[in-house]
Automatic annotation (TrEMBL), chain A:
Protein name: Cobalt transporter
Native species: Microvirga vignae
UniProt entry keywords in alphabetical sequence: Membrane, Transmembrane, Transmembrane helix
Domain of life according to the entry: Bacteria
Regions crossing the membrane: 18-38
InterPro entries cross-referenced by the UniProt entry: CbtB_put
From TrEMBL, chain B:
Protein name (Swiss-Prot/TrEMBL): Cobalt transporter
InterPro entries assigned: CbtA_put
Record bears the keyword Transmembrane helix: yes
Keywords annotated in UniProt: Membrane, Transmembrane, Transmembrane helix
Domain of life: Bacteria
Pfam families listed in its UniProt record: CbtA
TM annotation in the entry: 82-106, 118-138, 150-167, 174-197, 209-232
Positions of region (Disordered): 44-73
Keyword Endoplasmic reticulum part of the UniProt annotation: no
Amino acid sequence: MSTLIKQQAYVATSSQRLVAVFAAASFGLALVFISGFASPEALHNAAHDWRHSHNFPCH
Amino acid sequence: MIVRVLKAALVAGFLAACVAATLQIFLTSPLILQAETYEKAASPEAHGAGHGSLNSPHEHHASPDAGAEDAWEPSEGFSRTAFTVLATLVSGVGYAAILVALIIAAGREIGMQTAVRWAIGGFLAVNLAPAVGLPPELPGMGGGHLAERQIWWVCTVLGTGLGLYLITAVRHHAAVALGLLAIGLPHVIGAPHAAAASSDVPAVLAAQFAARSLAVAFAFWATLGIGLGWYWTRQQDGTTSELLSQAARVTSRRKAV
C-alpha cells in the first residue's frame, strides 16, 4: 500500500513533466535575461552591480 | 508538478541570492565603488553619481531610450544595494528554474547529490568557462563590442553546458569527443575584446575583483544546489506522508463501515 502511494506521489505523467520543463525553462530564461542582459538603461542601472559581480558582459 | 517545480525554484533561488548578496556587499561591491572613482576621474563628462560608464564614449546600446540624459538609476547607498539584491534574487530564481527544468528534462530524479552536481555544472558553464575568455570586469575596464561579447558569453555557456552533459551523462567515445569540442571551440574562436583594453583601474583591484567574483559565484551555485536538493526532498516527503495519512483515514473509515 505505502509503496504504491509513494509511487503515485513521485511519478508525474510525461505530459506534466513536459509542461513543467517548458514553463520552468521559459520562466527562468526570462528572469535571467531581465537581470543580466536587458538593455533599457533603467534595468541596466538597477542590476548594474550584480551584472559586474556575476560576470555578465555589462558595457 | 509545475507548482512544485516553481516552488523549489523560488526557495533555492532565494537561498542562493541571500548568500550571494551578502557576500557581494562585503566582497565585490566595495571594489566596484572604488573602481568607479577611477572611471569618473578618467571621464569627467560622464554624468550622474552612479554609473558614469553608461554615457561614456564607448557605450553603444541601441536601446530605444539610449542617449536619454536622465535615465533612471538607483541613488547611492541603500537604494543601490537594494536593487543589487533584487537583481541577484531575480537571477537566482531564474537560474534555479532553468536548473530544475534541465534536470527533469534529462530524466534525473532530483535529490541532494544530483542537485549539487548539476549546480556545480552550472557554475562551470555560466561563470568559470566564460571567465576564461572574458574575465569579470570592473566599471571602467574594457568595454566595447557589447553585443558580440554577449553572444560569445551565451555560446560559451551553452557549449560548456552541452559539453559537460555529453561527457558526464552519455559517456560514449564520440560523445566525449563532441563534448570536449563544444567546451573548447568558443575559446579556440576567442572572446571579442576591445581593441585597446587600457584602463585606469589598478591591476591589483581588477585581479582581486575577478577572483572574488568567481568565489561569490561558486557560493551562489553551491547554495542553489543544496537549497534545491533540500527543498525538493522535503516536498517529496511531505507529499508522501500526506498521502499516507489520507490512505490511513480511508482505510479506517472502510473498517468502520
